[in-house]
Amino acid sequence: MCKVIAIANQKGGVGKTTTAVNLGTGLAAEGKKVLLIDGDPQGSLTISLGYSEPDKLKVSLVDIISRVVNEEDIEEDFAVIKYKENVDLIPSNIELSAVEISLVNTMSRELVLRSYVESVKHNYDYVVIDCMPSLGVMTVNALACADSVLIPVQAAYLSVKGLQQLIKTIYTVKRRLNQKLEIEGILLTMVDSRTNNAKDIVAEVNEVYGQAMPVFPVEIPLSVRAAEISSVAKSIYDYDPKGKAAYAYMSLTKEVLAHGC
Ligand code: ATP
Ligand code: MG
Q1: CB neighbours of 104 closer than 8 A, spacing ≥ 6?
Q2: pLDDT, average across residues 222-235
Q3: Staple partner for 159: which of 103, 139, 154, 257, CB 3.0–4.6 Å?
């Protein structure tokens, strides 16, 4: 059984990509076979895994989407990069932004990614999709094919604003496109536990949302090391294995594993 987890928040810079890298590689370290899908034309996940010029890649998610739309065959390893043992990557680049527009005129445009993921998920234990910071058609595609959505929320002023809109979209997708969709949990990120502001936001998120949906007990600390991993193309476990952020991401991985499929 494979579980598909979308990592989404339309707010930019909240830790979606950092979480995708470290949850994906964390699950692989626990012996799971993982497919990471970069769902963002910024290509941040692709860059974070060491492919520093995603625009030069010959094939990427955009080619998979075109093939689905044109009802062409897709070989199992098409556009798949073997990143390391147990971790495959489907990269993305700027071309994905054009596909967002072209999908507008496609029949069942919200279900294109699902059609692909359904065809490859038997090869994996987990598929983790890093969404772009918008609630556009690509993010809806990710939500439409996911079993659950993990919502990183930065513990900073104004970060909780906009969460209602995301949650509304999640429930609309659940009603109309994907009944099985669940909220994996809200994950507080970049928590600077020395500041009252961060403590207030953690308390607010638990108070406002904690009854209705899971909020992960583990919080990802603000960490210079975590901020550096994208530029060194390493997971936090390789870059700073004894640091607080590595410990937190490993706890997150264990919680996700404990939630089951
Ligand atoms: P976007 O919306 O642009 O896709 P995102 O939600 O994917 O952004 P990230 O790219 O993961 O967010 O992180 C935003 C910035 O914060 C990056 O520069 C990243 O290195 C940094 N960052 C992520 N996690 C932490 C952390 N725990 N502590 C400090 N900095 C962090
Ligand atoms: Mg990102």
Answers
A1: 137
A2: 94
A3: 154
Integer angstrom CA distances of residue 177 from 109, 144, 162: 11, 6, 22
The rounded Å distance from CA 133 to ligand 2 centre is: 7
pLDDT digits (tens, 9 = 90+) for 62-102: 999 999 999 999 999 999 999 999 999 999 999 999 988 88
233 CA → ligand 2 middle, Å: 14
What digits encode the pLDDT tens for the residues 17-71?
999 999 999 999 999 999 999 999 999 999 999 999 999 999 999 999 999 999 9
Ligand 2 centre and the CA of 206: distance in Å? 24
Reported as half-sphere exposure (CB side, CA atoms, 13 A), residue 88 has a value of: 19
Q: Does 44 contact ligand 1 (Cβ within 6 A)? A: yes
Give all strands of the β-sheet with 81-84 in edge-to-edge order: 81-84, 87-90, 34-39, 126-131, 3-7, 148-154, 182-189
Question: From the centroid of its chain, how far is CA 190?
Answer: 16
Cα separation, 151 vs 241, in Å, equals 24
Q: CA 33 to CA 121: how far, in whole Å?
A: 10
Beta carbon of 40 within 6 Å of any ligand 1 atom: yes
* pTM (two decimals): 0.97
**Among protein residues, the one whose CA lies closest to atom 24 of ligand 1:** 15
Neighbours of ion ligand 2 (CB under 5 A): 16-17, 44
- Report which protein residue has its CA nearest ligand 1's atom 8: 13
